[in-house]
Amino acid sequence: MAGNRARPTREIQIVPPYLLGLRLDGRRAIVIGGGRVAQRRVPALLAAGAEVVLVSPEVTPTLEDLASRGELTWERRPYRDGDCDGAWLVQACTDDGKINAAVAAEAEDRRIWCVRADDAQASAAWTPAGGRVGETTVGVLAGGDPRRAAGVRDAVVDGLRDGTLNARHSRHKPVGVALVGGGPGDPGLITVRGRRLLAQADVVVTDRLAPRELLDELAGDVEIIDAAKIPYGRSMTQEHINAALVEHARAGRFVVRLKGGDPFVFGRGAEEVLHCVEAGIPVTVVPGITSAIAVPSAAGVPVTHRGVAQEFHVVSAHVAPGGAGSTVDWEALGRSQGTLILLMAVERMHVIADTLMRYGRSPDTPTAVIQDGTLQSQRTLMASLATVADDMTASGVRPPAIIVVGAVVQVARQIEMLRADMGRTP
Ligand SMILES: C[S@@+](CC[C@H](N)C(=O)[O-])C[C@H]1O[C@@H](n2cnc3c(N)ncnc32)[C@H](O)[C@@H]1O
């Protein structure tokens, strides 16, 4: 008998579902049950603009929070017949099969699509494994195998994000210029949005510190302009960079200006935005992970630590203390006990350390120098403020490097020592 009952189920399975994109904006969706399944389903319904009504005596803290912020209506009671009235979509998500069956039966009666969380075969509708990349929505059903569906979805979404599924010829190609923060150097540390825009670029204007490995992934016809090299001489001037951005965008090409770290942290990004806006070119800024925080972090140096440092100062030291045009208050930095993060400081570290000590920083202040942070060649030098400049010369530190001055460096040492001890434990 059991075999007989199973047969219709198998027949249902081979009929392929009809995949549809529901535009739920402003339409009511009823969710019966407030547990983990509902918690997974509700955010997608809200993102689609649905008017969500949740019926359940109890809900998870996350769902309760959404209700208290007015993002959904929570009816704090068990399901009762008639709840599906007025809904466009019903989600039966309780942990009681009988209740889910009753909900599904009511929905069926009213010809409302119902997804049953507990029984795929008895469910009128299935939720695909979904993902979104820009304007593209991906939905995958894999014959009732949710893991396989999620795997295929991940592969498609990853391909769209990293450009291996070519997005350059999509109908909704971006226009103008995007200033993309490339992160500190490791190609894995660019943002998802930055990588997607890069994959859509016709022209890429790149910096010395932008993650170069990403350029290898670009199609052969993408024009790459190395802003640190020809055609404008050894170093492309800011004026020439600005002119190139505008010229290519005016010719209808989508231009990505790929910069190291974040475009607005010592990156002259705002100058480029101003220039494009003045020329009437649409320009977007995609924030990046700045080396100022990511490079210490990658070397195990926290920039804050409870009870040790509750402030950090990021300083461009391209002008030495007391040098013409210096606007940094070195006296205040010397007095402060906060963490100092020095960029572009390699060639000036003798005078910087002397200045900080003269204004009050202890010569013993722990100091770390991180060269080529997040790259294969990353290396860290530990020193004190008194010795750091000589130690840097002795070990041949070269830019790009970040110098961290402050007690947080001691925390990094503690972590290192603990790690070494753990490694020795049998
Ligand atoms: C002109 S600033 C650009 C900063 C960039 N916009 C950011 O947000 O990271 C260049 C300086 O950033 C620091 N820097 C950038 N990338 C680095 C890396 N991977 N390792 C160490 N320092 C880095 C160095 O101090 C370098 O001289």
TrEMBL record:
<dbReference type="GO" id="GO:0032259">
    <property type="term" value="P:methylation"/>
</dbReference>
<keyword id="KW-0560">Oxidoreductase</keyword>
<feature type="active site" description="Proton acceptor">
    <location>
        <position position="207"/>
    </location>
</feature>
<feature type="active site" description="Proton donor">
    <location>
        <position position="229"/>
    </location>
</feature>
<keyword id="KW-0627">Porphyrin biosynthesis</keyword>
<feature type="domain" description="Tetrapyrrole methylase">
    <location>
        <begin position="177"/>
        <end position="388"/>
    </location>
</feature>
<dbReference type="GO" id="GO:0051287">
    <property type="term" value="F:NAD binding"/>
</dbReference>
<dbReference type="InterPro" id="IPR006366">
    <property type="entry name" value="CobA/CysG_C"/>
</dbReference>
<dbReference type="Pfam" id="PF13241">
    <property type="entry name" value="NAD_binding_7"/>
</dbReference>
<keyword id="KW-0808">Transferase</keyword>
<dbReference type="GO" id="GO:0043115">
    <property type="term" value="F:precorrin-2 dehydrogenase activity"/>
</dbReference>
<dbReference type="InterPro" id="IPR036291">
    <property type="entry name" value="NAD(P)-bd_dom_sf"/>
</dbReference>
<dbReference type="InterPro" id="IPR050161">
    <property type="entry name" value="Siro_Cobalamin_biosynth"/>
</dbReference>
<keyword id="KW-0520">NAD</keyword>
<dbReference type="GO" id="GO:0019354">
    <property type="term" value="P:siroheme biosynthetic process"/>
</dbReference>
<dbReference type="InterPro" id="IPR012409">
    <property type="entry name" value="Sirohaem_synth"/>
</dbReference>
<dbReference type="GO" id="GO:0004851">
    <property type="term" value="F:uroporphyrin-III C-methyltransferase activity"/>
</dbReference>
<keyword id="KW-0456">Lyase</keyword>
<dbReference type="InterPro" id="IPR035996">
    <property type="entry name" value="4pyrrol_Methylase_sf"/>
</dbReference>
<comment type="pathway">
    <text>Porphyrin-containing compound metabolism; siroheme biosynthesis; sirohydrochlorin from precorrin-2: step 1/1.</text>
</comment>
<dbReference type="InterPro" id="IPR014777">
    <property type="entry name" value="4pyrrole_Mease_sub1"/>
</dbReference>
<dbReference type="GO" id="GO:0009236">
    <property type="term" value="P:cobalamin biosynthetic process"/>
</dbReference>
<dbReference type="GO" id="GO:0051266">
    <property type="term" value="F:sirohydrochlorin ferrochelatase activity"/>
</dbReference>
<keyword id="KW-0949">S-adenosyl-L-methionine</keyword>
<keyword id="KW-0489">Methyltransferase</keyword>
<keyword id="KW-0169">Cobalamin biosynthesis</keyword>
<protein>
    <submittedName>
        <fullName>Uroporphyrin-III C-methyltransferase/precorrin-2 dehydrogenase/sirohydrochlorin ferrochelatase</fullName>
    </submittedName>
</protein>
<dbReference type="InterPro" id="IPR014776">
    <property type="entry name" value="4pyrrole_Mease_sub2"/>
</dbReference>
<keyword id="KW-0511">Multifunctional enzyme</keyword>
<dbReference type="Pfam" id="PF00590">
    <property type="entry name" value="TP_methylase"/>
</dbReference>
<dbReference type="InterPro" id="IPR006367">
    <property type="entry name" value="Sirohaem_synthase_N"/>
</dbReference>
<dbReference type="InterPro" id="IPR000878">
    <property type="entry name" value="4pyrrol_Mease"/>
</dbReference>
